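quick one, 89 residues, struct below
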Amino acid sequence: MELDDKDMKFFNRLLGRKNYFFLFSILSSIMGVAVLLYHLIARDLDASKAVLVVFILLAGKANLRQYKISLLLSRIKPLVDTSKQDSRI
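---
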């Protein structure tokens, strides 16, 4: 299967955002834990605030998954580049 220019642009854009995914994952995790601790200390953690904390932590997990996918794709990028060059010959 050959990648066209549209796919290569998407591929390169995803690789360029790799560090952002990692940063957002860390920030979401820190923010989720901070909100949880704040409401536990204030003793006003109800169901809606707990759901908010869970959503923040799930967003961090999703960003970490995106980072791992980007990391994996950056490892196979040389294979994609060489196959693209071979097909031009």
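The helical segments are 5-16, 18-42, 47-88.
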